[in-house]
## 1
Amino acid sequence: MSKWNLLRGRWGSGAGETDEIRIDASTNTIQTIEYEHHEIHSGSSYHAEAKAAGGSGTKATITFQTPDTTKYIHAFIHMVSNVEAQYTMGEGSTVTAASGTTLAALNRNRNILTATVVISEGTTGGDAAGALTQGATVTNFGTMLIDERQIGIGKTGGEDRGDSEWVLKRNTVYALEIESQATASEVSIRIDYYEHTDKH
């Protein structure tokens, strides 16, 4: 007989906020979800995407600043192009003021209205917490090129996704950009991220 039924888990910090650990009826294995999935349920996971179409040199760009707090941004980047393209992710980037527009960060739990803590960078009308920026001019990708790669071969295009999670540096400007290198191009860049304060 399984002893999983003797275990209890805490779902809150208050008195009595515990419950039985759930197990699968067929295999008696403990049931869990990935932490990233949990962050969606809790309303701390966000999505934003920028797209562009045109000739060679067309760029889709997302820029933002991380907050100067211990609530860290855990990011996954995904980029797509129908032609050969160059992807760059810079840390400590320099962005031209008022050169882009506001890019909403959608809470991935559509029943929760909590706004993101990231700060737009290079937005016309001024930068503010609660959004990112799209289409801003990046004058310098910064002191650290976190990621830089070609995607697509010739005119066959390509798709790529960072398999690893980036925990971004606090109080730092980041620039994500994909630039096409052929005509009749369509490019897009997406960031999915969750906000988390370390427990220890």
Note: The chain has two domains: 1-32, 46-197.
## 2
Amino acid sequence: MKILTLVFNHFLVNTYLIYADNNDCVLIDPACNNEMEEQKLQEVISNHKLSIKYILLTHTHIDHIAGCEFAKKMYHNAKLVMHKDALPLYENANNFTMVMGFNKQNLPEVDEFIAEDQYIELGEDKLKVIHTPGHANGSICLYAEKYGFVVSGDVLFLQSIGRSDLPGGNHQTLLNSIKNKLLSLPPDTKVFPGHGDATDIAFEKENNPFL
């Protein structure tokens, strides 16, 4: 299993492409927000000959779903998936577009809801869904135990944690999610966050001032 990172829009969101040996791929948080970014996403997918099976949203704040309409249009056979608790914010995304500097969205229908301990299967590999609310309702992380990494969305960052003052946020819930669901992972687990550089669980245990 391999992971590619693309950084999109003015919030510098990490969009991830995780793919198996057979090139089955999950596109995580499509955040492309203009034609140049959309073209970049297409080029990377094409150059690596990836087959997009899922378009997955770690949560539904507007900066992470800015390219969702485009992604579903281009890869219409892919399933659009999220946690069910993320749906209300998704459905009301246009309440936040202008104030956050994004264009009005015409968001596609959700194909499938995913829940705690469910797996996203790619070829012979799989990613485990970890429900981690606190930054937003329905926030999830994806854990590849075999490969020693977790995609943490906007829950855990390098020496920081997600905001809890946005819609659906709760500070104590966020801390509980991190401590109970993420810090319990093996210390050498690499963390790929929704913004910024990668880190690992051991480093955050020792150096994250919020924990």
Note: The first helix runs from residue 35 to 47.
## 3
Amino acid sequence: MKKNLKNIVLSLILCGSLISILAQDIHKETTADTLAVLWTGADPHVAEKVCLMYTHAAKTAKWFDEVVLIVWGPSSKLLAENIELQKKVTEMGKDGVKLQACIVCANMYGVADKLRDLGIEVKGMGKPLSDYLKRDWKVLTF
């Protein structure tokens, strides 16, 4: 009887440990270490001193495993016209920040080709942004 009880207790402990390990793996999948930065503003100071600086650091300092910069709205025009911001965004891409831009916005400002020349993936962004949100990415907007 004692041997059976000992085996049952041991089995329960092992099952509990296995459940704990599986739960940790599930938690990792649902709380992905991912950041999408939605850059919409036309202020060059906010772009340089806040948005791009934080986004770049989030990737290079490994605060997040995956970092995406989404250029949307007036930021498209600002980026196409500002050489210093272009240098910064190009450097970010080289350091592993994924660069994307809204094609509709880029076309409204006539800058789609310029953004592509900077290495930015220019495409429809409504669905990808919705997917980031549905997959529980952290989304930060400037």
Note: The CA atoms of residues 37 and 55 lie 7 Å apart.
